[in-house]
């Protein structure tokens, strides 16, 4: 696939996801390098939805370590169970947070972040990494984001 996304920016969120997910699949097919694939996925998500921040934290030595991302500089390491990302890792589930200021123990890498969704990817039934997506708007994520970002994470699980 050419390194170009074809997305109708006037389309609604679900239509953009429906167009994007197969393009991500095509973009990463045939590439075995996880860092390259994660970088392109982060870029594709940010380009399509103009998210404030989108990136991956990879489990290394019992910490989440910053991986490929798009957006302002970010926290480099996150402990197990800490913040939204650490909670997603610990609980092995999607965390959808409408207002990060109301999330107990939220780690404020940026005060501009207002809402967040974090999704884990699994390898051998253990969390191998998480996708973290932040918005500078309150309540910016919903079940549509969860549904389609879970599809993206299934693609990620193929190469991690």
Tell me what the structure shows.
- With 160 residues, the chain is α+β, with helices and mostly antiparallel strands.
- The chain has one domain: GAF domain (Beta-Lactamase, 2-Layer Sandwich), CATH 3.30.450.
- The protein contains four helices and six strands, in the order ααβββαβββα.
- The chain has a six-stranded antiparallel beta sheet, with helices on both faces.
- Strand 5 (115-123) and strand 6 form a beta hairpin.
- It is globular, with a radius of gyration of 15 Å.
- The mean pLDDT is 94.
CATH class: Alpha Beta
Number of helices: 4
Count every beta strand, where a strand is a DSSP E run of 2 or more residues.
6
What separation lies between the terminal Cα atoms? 21 Å
In order across it, which strands form the biggest sheet?
Answer: 3-2-1-6-5-4
Helix content: 25-40%
The average pLDDT is 94
* Overall structural domain count: 1
Provide the β-strand percentage band.
Answer: 25-35%
């Amino acid at each position: 696939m050419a390194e170009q996304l074809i997305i109708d920016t006037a389309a609604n969120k679900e239509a953009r996801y429906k167009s994007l997910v197969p393009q991500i699949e095509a973009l990463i097919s045939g590439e075995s390098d996880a860092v390259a694939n994660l970088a392109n996925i982060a870029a594709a998500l940010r380009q399509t939805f103009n998210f404030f921040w989108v990136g991956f934290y990879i489990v290394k030595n019992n910490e989440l370590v910053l991986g490929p991302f798009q957006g302002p500089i970010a926290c480099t390491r996150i402990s197990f169970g800490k913040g939204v990302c650490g909670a997603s890792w610990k609980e092995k589930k999607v965390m959808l947070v409408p207002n990060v200021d109301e999330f107990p123990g939220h780690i404020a890498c940026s005060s501009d972040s207002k809402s967040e969704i974090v999704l884990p990817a699994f390898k051998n039934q253990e969390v191998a990494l998480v996708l973290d997506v932040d918005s500078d708007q309150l309540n910016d994520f919903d079940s549509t984001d969860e549904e389609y970002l879970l599809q993206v994470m299934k693609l990620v699980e193929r190469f991690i």
